[in-house]
Amino acid sequence: MPIDPSIAIGAELDEVKFGWTPSDVLLYHLALGAGADPTDPRELRYAYERDLRVLPTFATVAANLRVFEPPSVSFPGVEVDLAKVVHGRQSVTVHHPIPVTGEAVARSRITDVLDKGKAAVVVQRTDVTDDSGTPLWTAESSIFARGEGGFGGERGTSDRVELPERDPDVVVDTPTLPQQALLYRLCGDRNPLHADPGFARGAGFDAPILHGLCTYGIVAKAVTDALLDADVTRIRSWSAKFAGIVLPGETLRTRIWRDGDTLLVTTTAPDRDEAPVLSDAVLRTR
């Protein structure tokens, strides 16, 4: 069996030590499309080192910036073909603003394996501290392994976010670049699904698709720019479910509802009849 929950759940993964520089942060932001207006002072907070601030979603790539091989889905009790895997959900909670330069240690473990019938969901938690042991951020992610369900495990509870029964407070349209995935893969995710047309067709897609975590970062930036005056230090956490694919070059339409210190978010692809992209998304502010 490719997935054995009795082995996987609770398994601790190898500790990872890593570091980053302002150049790494700049690359990540540019890979999300930052700097489209290079004279806008708010954009330069992402794209120029003089007043550089780190978008919290940088946490999703910081440990993998020096990885140059395609990822594998190989953990204790989990062996899955990469072509069967898509990202399910991602959350990042920052305990204080991420510094522009740093060294850190990541400790990860598998917290759950869920049986969705036709698929399995593997949930992973990563706690990151700096070299003195001070917590920096906590990330939780889930991968959706198609064809690996049906092993009799727990299905899990619903994490659906109820939206207000009114129009959104803000709607933001964000274009992506045709080469967006080719830029973003330089941040460490070399999965050929995002670059190789033949591999993408073999995985069931007509063309390479955008990394889910790229969409996750693009939308976090769009929400921050629209409602937080591009002040990334106000973000406490950002979580979202990946509800559908994005094709590089498409426009993303993000609807945002204010609820006190919480922003409720959905994102669709208007070029494809408002196909869902991100759902059950929540940005919490300080």
TrEMBL record:
Residues 163-262 form the MaoC-like domain. It comes from the Bacteria. It holds the Pfam family MFE-2_hydrat-2_N. InterPro entries: HotDog_dom_sf (IPR029069), MaoC-like_dom (IPR002539), MFE-2_N (IPR054357). Transmembrane segments: none annotated. One of its GO terms (molecular function) is (3S)-3-hydroxyacyl-CoA dehydrogenase (NAD+) activity. Residues 18-147 form the Peroxisomal multifunctional enzyme type 2-like N-terminal domain. GO terms for biological process: fatty acid beta-oxidation. PANTHER family: ENOYL-COA HYDRATASE CHSH3, PEROXISOMAL MULTIFUNCTIONAL ENZYME TYPE 2-RELATED. Belongs to the enoyl-CoA hydratase/isomerase family. This is Acyl dehydratase. It comes from Amycolatopsis marina.
